[in-house]
Amino acid sequence: MDTFIPLLTIFMLAVFVGFEIITKVPPLLHTPLMSGSNAISGITIIGAMLSVSSSNQTTMILGFLALVIATINVVGGFLVTHRMLDMFKKKD
Amino acid sequence: MDTVLIDLIYLVASVLFILGIRGLTHPRTAVRGNLFGATGMLLAIVATLLDQQIFGAGMDAFAWILAGVVIGAAIGATFALKIELTAMPEMVALLNAFGGGASALVAGAVLVSDTDPSTQTTIATVASGIIGSVTFWGSLVAFDKLRGLLLPDRPVIFPAQQILNGVLALTALGLGVMVVTEPANTEFYVGVVVVASLLGILLTIPIGGADMPVAIALLNSYSGLAAASTGFVLNNNILIITGSLVGASGIILTMIMCKAMNRSLINVLVGAIAESGGSQSDADEVYAGRVKSTSAEEVAMLLDGVRRVVIVPGYGLAVSQAQHQVRDLATLLESQGVEVEYAIHPVAGRMPGHMNVLMAEADVEYDKLKEMDAINPSFEQTDVSIVIGANDIVNPDARNDPSSPIAGMPILNVDQSRTVIVIKRSLSPGFAGIPNPLFAADNALMLFGDGKQAVLDLVAAVKDAA
After folding, report:
1. How far apart are CA B69 and CA A69, in angstroms?
2. B7 an active-site residue?
3. Does pTM surpass 0.80?
4. Of A70, B9, B324, B431, which shows the fewest CB atoms inside 10 Å?
5. B290-327 pLDDT, tens digit each
């Protein structure tokens, strides 16, 4: 349990940072906020990569499945957010 | 490779994620913000490749990782580039599903190979398994409802639904305790995932179409929390930081959506509005003899010489894909010296910000898309409001009738403008299932028809009149 408290501290502080920034996002950009934050929640991809390199075969297979869907989440999320944000540019 | 270096790169990536979300606070910086986020992700992935576990596993591990990334990237890119922007709620639901599913899978993968997991690891594994599975299946149900595939758009409610959900939640927790006490017995984790999957489905089916903004925002939050608990499984800071950012974001959006409907989260989650029959006034009583139907030509005459027009887009506009025609109408009016603005209700459409994306796609400048609180005071100085495919969000009963099922819900005060044109297929009620006295108001005219065709006719009529 010696890692738990430091990790919990980071968790709590990050929640507060999240609340502070996200309350400033205007409703205009709420959809891109969802798809963009969704893309970064695909950070699980790094856990999936570690599992894929395991010598345990079950771990490896589960990790591979996770890797594929996490990558869909990351690549799809960032790209679709970019597509949307591109439309919100100021027109001249 | 030195773990200190890897952790430092993770720290840089975390900072980039935070800067990325901060970029989304303004349309001018938003594109750059998203690029910050993507750069952070790339850095985190490269740093992970340097990890001893992967580096030491040799070429086979690299090959599998490359294969997984290539497959996932190809599917993800195809989705992102092919999907119609009007289908964005479905896209976000699908992305939520994948995020949650990945977290539950990784937690399970770690549990299988960890011969002596700590209590922190096992508890976090259970949390990832429950939240991740609920997110995965809940989001798939939301996706299905939005697409109209298997399940109806309306709430699916059956007797003792909440009791069943409670039993399932307790069963998942009970199996979770077994995982913690006997981690080597992985069947218990499979049990947690199966029960939580069922729970995810049952929790989402009672949520009706117009309440989808809440469901999507909440599932978005869950996908973040699932990633954060996987961070506790792996003792990994970046998962925890990122997961809590996303968790916070989803919760805030959920609260904003609930406030915009003046309903509690619980009320939305149990699909309560469909049942609350209470004091529903009879549609015939409200509409009889008072509804005035109009034509495109008549509206064109009305629009001749006005100074200010406000357009109110609703879900019906998205369904009939009328955004480009609406923009054409606005451009035409502006060329005649009319001031045109758009009034965006927070819960118009099927997800937070849905109408903004729709109008932005049609090249409407974002500073003309006004939030409810900003535009409401100006309706009294508005000559004509044009409501397209919206209903409950402009129902004055929310303001005037304390016994109405939607009493207290903040609405767009279109009824205060000099004339209101409502473009709608019929007098059928909106999601709340109640009649709308606006349609029978003295200053209201109904232009019946499909949104896109009606606006097309209107554009032609305004051109003719000029």
Report:
1. 9
2. no
3. yes
4. B324
5. 899 999 999 999 999 899 999 999 999 998 999 999 99
Structure tokens at A62: 């589960």
- Interchain pair B102, A35: CB under 8 A: no
Q: Are A60 and B60 in contact (CB under 8 A)?
A: no
Secondary structure (DSSP) of A4-51: HHHHHHHHHHHHHHHHHHHTTS-GGGHHHHHHHHHHHHTTHHHHHHHH
| Distance to chain A for B172, nearest Cα, Å | 21
Longest Cα pair distance anywhere in chain A, in angstroms?
Answer: 58
Residue A84 CA to residue B217 CA, distance in Å, equals 18
Residue B101: exposed, middle, or buried by beta-carbon count in 10 A (0-12, 13-18, 19+)? Answer: buried
Whether chain A has a CB inside 8 Å of the CB on B200: the answer is: no
Measured between CA atoms, the residue of chain B closest to residue A61 is B109
Q: Domains plus CATH for chain B?
A: 89-276 (no CATH), 283-465 (3.40.50.1220)
For residue B235, list chain A residues with Cβ-Cβ distance below 8 A.
3, 7
Q: What are the 10-residue block averages of pLDDT along chain A, 92 residues in total?
A: 87 94 94 94 96 94 97 97 88 54
User: Which residues numbered 146-165 in B keep a CB inside 8 Å of some CB on A?
Assistant: none
